[in-house]
Amino acid sequence: MTVWALSRIREAQPDLRVFAITGGGPRMTLEAATSIAEVWGAEKVFLKPFDESVLLDALRNHREVRAEGAG
Question: Domain spans of the chain?
Fold first, then answer.
């Protein structure tokens, strides 16, 4: 997904939480991933290859926080 598409999504739904997945690979630094997150407006960036359990944990956490806000 491009930065343009994410910016359009942010305009339409500013409260939407975004998780980005990039093919940056294992040599991408934490600083570069943080920079990507800032530019993309993503809450978290997952670098390929990534541990699926980490992604699932992030999604579960999102669901729990969302449920707490609704109740």
Answer: 3-70
19-70 pLDDT tens trace: 888 777 677 787 887 787 777 778 888 888 889 999 999 989 887 776 777 6
CATH class of 3-70: alpha beta
For residues 19 and 43, the answer to whether their CB atoms sit within 8 Å is yes
pTM, whole model, 2 decimals? 0.64
For the CA atoms of 18, 23, 29, 30, what is the dihedral angle to 10 degrees?
A: 20
Which pair of structure tokens corresponds to residue 48? 């390929």
The tokens of 20 are what? Answer: 């980005």
For residue 68 the two structure tokens come to 């707490």
Residue 46, classed as helix, strand or coil, is strand
